[in-house]
C-alpha cells in the first residue's frame, strides 16, 4: 500500500488521523473485539478496534474496524493480513457512514458472470 497526499489536502496530522490509520475488515460473525485485536496486533500498535453490530439484536454483522497509531501499521495490516479479511482503508467517520462501507463491500463481493455476457 502506497500512501501519499497532496499539499492541498490539509495538515498532515488530520489526514494521518482519520484517513490513513483506520482499516475496515470482514470478520467471522463469532469474533469478539478481543479476537479482532489478537488477529491484528501483530501489524502494529492498535488504538482501538470495534465490531459493527445489528442495532436491534446486538449480533455482529461480520464487519469491523481496527485503528492503528501509525499509517505504516495500517498499510502493513492491509498488505499482510489474510485475504479473507478483505482489509481496506476506512473512510473517515465524518465523510461516510458504516452502512456506506458495508454497501461497498457487498457490491465488491458479488460474483461476476464468467464468459462473454455482452448482449450482441
UniProtKB/TrEMBL annotation:
Tree of life domain: Eukaryota
This protein's record includes keyword RNA-binding: yes
Keyword vocabulary terms for this entry: RNA-binding
GO molecular function annotations of the record: RNA binding
InterPro entries: Nucleotide-bd_a/b_plait_sf (IPR012677), RBD_domain_sf (IPR035979), RBM45_RRM2 (IPR034206), RRM_dom (IPR000504), SLIRP/GR-RBP-like (IPR052462)
Segments of this protein annotated with the region Disordered: 92-120
Chain ranges passing through the membrane: none
Domain RRM: 21-95
Biased composition (Basic and acidic residues): 92-104
Entry-linked Gene3D superfamilies: 3.30.70.330
Name the record gives this protein: RBM45 protein
Native source organism of the sequence: Todus mexicanus
Encoding gene, per UniProt annotation: Rbm45
Amino acid at each position: 500500500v502506497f500512501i501519499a497526499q497532496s499539499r492541498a489536502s490539509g495538515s498532515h496530522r488530520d489526514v494521518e488521523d482519520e484517513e490513513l490509520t483506520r482499516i475496515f475488515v470482514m470478520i467471522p460473525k463469532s469474533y469478539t473485539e478481543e479476537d479482532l485485536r489478537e488477529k491484528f496486533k501483530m501489524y502494529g500498535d492498535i488504538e482501538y478496534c470495534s465490531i459493527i453490530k445489528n442495532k436491534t439484536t446486538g449480533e455482529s454483522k461480520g464487519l469491523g474496524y481496527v485503528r492503528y497509531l501509525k499509517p505504516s501499521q495500517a498499510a502493513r495490516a492491509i498488505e499482510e493480513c489474510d485475504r479473507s479479511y478483505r482489509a481496506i482503508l476506512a473512510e473517515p467517520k465524518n465523510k461516510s457512514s458504516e452502512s456506506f462501507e458495508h454497501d461497498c463491500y457487498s457490491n465488491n463481493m458479488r460474483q461476476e458472470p464468467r464468459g462473454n455476457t455482452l448482449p450482441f
